[in-house]
């Protein structure tokens, strides 16, 4: 591992010298720690045009900042291998203060920064618009750059599908999400490869409407811009806002997967929820037999007694999940079918149904903690408030609407945000809730824009996203061991900021349990992130292996025909065996073309460099006519010997690392079957 890390650091050292930012003409040398710090000092140095931009009162920031009072202060670092600076620009004439908080990580060659604007004067400032947290031009060897990116969530098989675009001179690539949720139809993580052996990973942190442009301005220059779409507002006296964050991770290696795997490891090491100073492992979930007979929906028919009975039944058979997941429909009026009520149109009644849960969740959570040795996670959707519900009646002054039955709770209002923090926090504490699941089943962009006032376009969105971060940070601070599951109609709020605080345990609302789609979603997301999950509906290996990941939920009715609880136990053990490898290196074995068809194979590799072990997971889909499939493995030592164990037939074969890199033939005699191979260095 030390040798691999050393080579990665050497690669980063090279890339930070050759893949230069031409705005400053930077060429940095002599040591990884010095390079990251010097990169920061050079890009944000005195008299330099920093790698961000905006328009202020009709003037470009490049002009405005030159007339500002400037300082660059080294701040106290909170982590090992971290360097922190604060760049401040103050316009004494109008009172505008611009702060850029910059962090660098010397062990990964990564830099992130976030912009904040404050009005320190007594009058409203001129308008701030076209805010680009990243506005940076890279110089690179003569080469046609490629951008590797992914689809966002659309509740389709193509969710998170890997894509590639070549940028010829003059080409522009635009990306932005749909409707105000950060990964709805677009994905704010991508990899720019400027030559055959170098590039930069880019991540955007904004849980609203971000936008990005990548422009090939010449054969050796690439212009990256990324920031907010809508902001065009003056700041009121004393007002302070933040905007998007940006992360750049520079890489150099034999192929672009070096960058992807370096970024995955960086996210785990430095940009994920930590408990006891360690990256958290999100749980294997069990449920309460999701789905009831009509007219019940979601968990609108669940009772305390039934939930406890389901926990008893699960533990009786040894199916011991690490957490139990209670989803929508537990609150007041959700089971009032005679009045046309259901889980969706009662969001805003965030009190437990007194008939079904007479003492709230305390009896249930106590039982789960003491008898099942597990945690309880409960679903909430506090931002969306349905017409006529308790919150809408009691706090109409906090409702934002653009017509229709759904309003947004205005968490950009500090009073509303503080009230939300205390209300949800007290509810969790009183009811013994360990993990918090937040959904968001509305596209907010239209409501935000409808509630902006003259000269203040985009400010409603900015304040709302700031309130969301404050709310989640409050929960994480109040409950030091809490985990947040980020849903939003299934995976539509995945970005650099949400991944710091949460992970998507239900990454898409695509056809529940359809295994081919689940294979595609895993394959696409693993290029960038290891912390995500979905559900498992059957213990047939083709189905269950389609849902493998670093976390997951099993939705197995214990009376399902054709499946026994011993099969379920074996499936859970397989999940536990493979699970740690999803936090290691990922290699796609099926390319990045159209992977959604029923007539193909799909395969990928999980490799652990520390002990040279790994897994190959492969699927022959139902209409594939090919009994064999050839794959080339990565990350192996060419001269070493590896034993490859077939989990399904018990056979073990030996190959050299070079043989496996040249090609391994996978064989499945029947369609709609799968392979799970484990390899180990001898």
Q: Can you describe this structure?
A:
The chain has 682 residues and is an alpha+beta fold. Among the domains are: 2-275, Distorted Sandwich (Beta-galactosidase, Chain A, domain 5); 585-681, Golgi alpha-mannosidase II (Immunoglobulin-like, Sandwich). It contains 16 helices and 38 strands. The strands form 7 sheets. Strands 3-4-5-6-16-12-11-8-9 form a 9-stranded antiparallel β-sheet. Strands 1, 2, 7, 10, 13, 14, 15 and 27 form an 8-stranded antiparallel β-sheet that branches. Strands 28-26-22-20-19-30-29 form a 7-stranded parallel β-sheet. α1 runs parallel beside α2 and α8 packs parallel to α10. It is globular, with a radius of gyration of 26 Å. The two termini are 17 Å apart. The model is unreliable at 1-18 and 20-32 (pLDDT under 50).
Annotation keywords:
682 residues, alpha+beta, Beta-galactosidase, Chain A, domain 5, Immunoglobulin-like, nine-stranded antiparallel β-sheet, eight-stranded antiparallel β-sheet, 16 helices, 30% strand, disordered N terminus
**Reported CATH architecture of the domain at 2-275:** Distorted Sandwich
CATH class of the domain at 2-275: Mainly Beta
Gap from first CA to last CA = 17 Å
> Percent of residues in helical segments?
10-25%
* Strand fraction: 25-35%
